[in-house]
Amino acid sequence: MPTVLRAFDDKNEGYKEGKVSNTRFGSFPHSTLIGQKWGSQIAASKVDTGSRGRKPTKRKAEELDASTGADDDSASTKTPVAASSGFLHLMYPTPESWTLSLPHRTQVVYTPDYSYILHRLRARPGSTVIEAGAGSGSFTHASVRAVFNGYPGEKPATKKQRLGKVCSYEFHEQRAGRVREEITEHGLDGLVEVTHRDVYEDGFLLGDPQTGRSPKASAIFLDLPAPWLALKHLVRHPASGGESPLDPNSTAYICTFSPCLEQAEKTIRMMRKLSWLNISMVEVQHNRIEVKRERIGLDCDGIRGATVFPKTVDEAATKLREDDARAKRFRLGRSADEETSAKEEASSLKEPAGPLYSVGRLVHRSENELKTHTSYLVFAILPRDWTEEDEQRCRQKYPSDK
Ligand code: SAM
Per the database record, which ranges form the tRNA (adenine(58)-N(1))-methyltransferase catalytic subunit TRM61 C-terminal domain (predicted)? Predict the structure, then answer.
């Protein structure tokens, strides 16, 4: 997995002249990054401050050993530490890279979950998504990419292109403020509206909780400690007599994200009471599976590129010795006789029956550390109201429909 260099330091100040990001691949003064084109390869700075050989602290050593590729990506204004001859590529920021590098203020929703959730919520260019709570803004960034058909900061080609929107609610004032700032920094203004609000009490209208505008959402994602308390606001006809936050012309798709089964059960019970349908619960068990063909040695068993699996340790050791000797002979050069017998040996080898990539035994291995349970996802839909007028309009539009 590529390592993501944090685009923002602890104070979230972004890349700055005079700063340096130190990674295990070397030091990258920000002056060498600013103004470069996306995709550029930037070599690590060769600055040597004499820190080479300095023993890393225990924590740093653990970080460097971490198989996840976690870096010391701290951006400091200090002089660069001794650089290795690494490089980096400047990549266009994506929700995935932001999720891996954002400053954590809360638990966040990760890519395996949000990609599945957004797919089930039918979030697409033009959709309006309600999200609560905003937390660290991980889901916010993924959902805005799903509903906006373009690149942040880019002028929309058509007016329609900008119709998608994310209405994000967060009751922690500082968190709401930070998400708002990040949205601006990432050129997403106008596509995300962050409201500081307790949604259990005040629901999802934009502006004033009683008399505000309806976001007219067709997709809802609730990452809250008690999602069932917010459901009473997500109805077609609110008890308060106010507007519904749902799009009257679309089915509403909802997903709630809860770490405990008890929370999921409470949510499901409330969903049933409020007439949500097709209720289902899913747990995403994301697990990387490495698939490869094992090819021990080449030209074994009389088949070019075939695999022979030694059955015993002795067999394996003999095979290694033979391979070694063959490599040595090759390095030293071969006598005319050896050359001839090598050619004969080579020509006696059968070509593999299929293409080379299909040669060898197919093996697969799941990653050791299983990222098991994150949360229970509860999905449901709420159909739109269907009135006599809708029926009439439909008959006019499709007269053959009896
Ligand atoms: N989905 C977010 C992300 O991907 O970064 C993380 C959400 S975090 C786990 C839950 C958030 O819900 C917290 O920031 C919390 O302040 C907020 N929250 C809790 N109760 C709330 C309420 N009644 N109204 C609005 N937000 C609430």
Answer: 86-381
